[in-house]
Fold:
Amino acid sequence: MRKEDFIALSARVTDGSATDEEIVRFNAYYDALLSSGGDVPAFPDEEALLAGIRRRTAPAPVRRLLWLKISAAAAVALAIAAGVWMYGGKDAGPLVEAPPARQHIAPGSNSAFLTLADGRRIPLDDVKAGDVASQGNIKITKTASGEVVYEAQPGSGNTSGAPAWNTLSTPRGGQFRLLLPDGTRVWLNAASSLRFPAAFDGSERLVELTGEGYFEVAADKKKPFVVQAHSQRVKVLGTHFNVQSYPDEPFARTSLLEGSVEVTAGQRTARLAPGEQSSLNGKTGELVTGPADVSAAAAWKNGYFVFNDTYLSDVIRQLARWYDVQADMDRLPRIRYTGTIPRNVPLSAALDMLEITGNVKFEVSQNTIHVK
Structure:
């Protein structure tokens, strides 16, 4: 990179117009200059520059940045993982050599299937913005931003007398947003499904979740909202919370961000306050409560993986679902990670970031992550 290009890039970082890739490139080149003893230019406003980096590297509630935890040499490796080559001058060779290329696996995207009560299965990623279908007096549309909206039309109500159950399901490597007819908004993570009625006509608003979903529930004191997930029921009136209930996870967790919820599993009931979490042991059925890692629980819907002292096995399961790959879970070291990784980078970049901070090596072959 030429010095004038580096100065121009610093200006873009400062004013907030730089892309995520440019932020990574700037950090890596800056640290490469430091580690090689190169001429580091003076920046007009270093405080504004740092603020620009922080603004674009992580969501506001997180602010735990992976690049702050790594050395200058590691930052160079991170840049290589993103496909960035750095040069010390016009005639200089590369400061570092690229590692062996990994199999390119793109990150997940907005992808889901909507199954209607009559059995029709609609691939939503193939549907253009506009009307999708209708059921009775409920109109189903897809917005330009990629959200499925259920909207009650005048004179709405379930005239058939039986609930018209629909299912929104995401594949591995997919996610999607849904606006229910009561105004509740749901984010579905990869390999998840939500079964729900097209109209809430009973005494409660019941939905059934498999996998992971983040809920912003519209308040209705007369009609509580209930999420049936795994062997637990989460009952709320109006609140923001995340439920993770994957079959391959040892615990089903409900994390509360706002409001209050009541979690019931078997004979045990737990009431959560904001900042608390319940954990249901899938083997023993034990339900316990404790502090919630709110930033990590909600980060996925904002486009980030956030790891706070997270075991490698948990990290790998999250990556496998999002990148639609398998994982060899045998003989994993008992190491933990703390840091933030954008969900929009390819798998190779995510694994390189983990290698930098975790003292392990990863290999991807035949669509499977192997840990060395």
Summary: The chain is about 20% helix and 35% strand. The longest strand covers residues 205-216. Residues 20-36 form the longest helix (17 residues).
